[in-house]
Design a protein that fits this description.
binds zinc ion; globular; Nucleotidyltransferase, domain 5; six-stranded mixed sheet
Length: 306
């Protein structure tokens, strides 16, 4: 198995000059990647420019950030050709790793725009190294810039930042410093949401359980699914007594609390997300909480009308 650590640079429509193409708001102009073996040793490198087809002017954000000019990009090849080359380079058995959750989604959006075969039929398991860094070295919630992590871990800065290759290179160096137990915290990219109940993802992490539901036409349909709306103790694998019924403050995040006689309070949360084809799906998490945390939720629930 290989770790493919990659980073993308993209361009977007220049305000007032070019119209945004809705299917591809961010056009990828560079792919940089490193391939690591199972011991996190660098095995190979990949760097290609991509010749822009949609946005012919460099947006100032892109230009200022990555110091690239159109002439350099014109020397590249079109996205589908570079992407095919990249996938061949990745090989058969690998897991993608990126800094933050966005790159893998944008990669798939660009692939879809060019009618390329999807990377997968459903969510893709990957490593969000930015998240792993937070879990391993900080508070699990804060998301830092790559350079912060590099400084924190005292990684030697031997090449400049903010180019696809260098950012992939430094992300790989950070990944190599993540302790093995932290690596249990996979992420899932949901560019392609599960289509059936069978494809739904249920996975227990160290202190919570995650369930990515299939697509539904609307929330009402999702709320009608008994399994999704049940609150259970995922250790006992049993539905449990409800202490706080489902409530929401913003119509996007829904909360409920149950009580297991053996394991205590379980907070259930459903985040409603929009899928790529304008349907919705839910990301449900179940987490053990203290009595105090339960009381805070109870108070919040008490303030709203059902
Ligand atoms: Zn239990």
């Amino acid at each position: 198995m290989h770790y493919i650590v990659f980073d993308l640079e993209w361009n977007q429509s220049k305000t007032g000059l070019e119209k945004e193409t809705k299917e591809i708001p961010f056009e990828i102009i560079e792919i940089g990647a490193v391939k690591l073996d199972e011991e996190f040793h660098l095995e190979d490198k990949f760097q290609r420019f991509i010749k822009p087809q949609i946005y012919r002017e460099l947006h100032e954000v892109t230009r200022n950030l990555i110091h690239i000019n159109m002439e350099e990009l014109e020397s590249g090849r079109a996205f589908p050709l570079v992407m095919k080359e990249f996938l061949d380079w990745c090989g058969e058995d690998y897991i993608f790793c990126t800094w933050g959750p966005i790159d893998l989604t944008e990669l798939q959006r660009n692939m879809k725009f060019y009618y390329m075969e999807p990377l997968a039929d459903g969510p893709i398991k990957f490593y969000d190294v930015q998240k792993l860094f937070s879990i391993g070295y900080e508070d699990k919630k804060t998301r830092r810039a790559l350079e912060h992590a590099v400084d924190f871990l005292q990684i030697e800065k031997d090449i400049p930042f903010h180019r696809a290759f260098s950012d992939a290179y430094y992300t790989a160096k950070v990944l190599a410093k993540i302790e093995a137990p932290v690596l249990r915290n996979y992420s899932f990219d949901v560019f392609v949401a599960p289509k059936s109940k069978k494809e739904e993802i249920r996975i227990a992490f160290d202190n919570y359980m995650k369930h990515i539901t299939r697509e539904f036409n609307d929330k009402q349909e999702l709320f009608a699914d008994r399994e999704i709306m049940n609150v259970k103790c995922y250790i006992c694998r049993k539905n449990i007594k409800r202490k706080i019924r489902w409530f929401t403050l913003n119509s996007k995040h829904y909360y409920s609390v149950g009580y297991c006689d053996v394991h205590g309070y379980v907070k259930a949360k459903i985040r409603i997300k929009k899928s790529e084809n304008n349907k919705i799906y839910g990301v449900k998490t179940l987490k053990f909480i203290s009595e105090d945390e339960m009381k805070v939720l109870k108070e919040r629930e008490g303030k709203i009308k059902h």
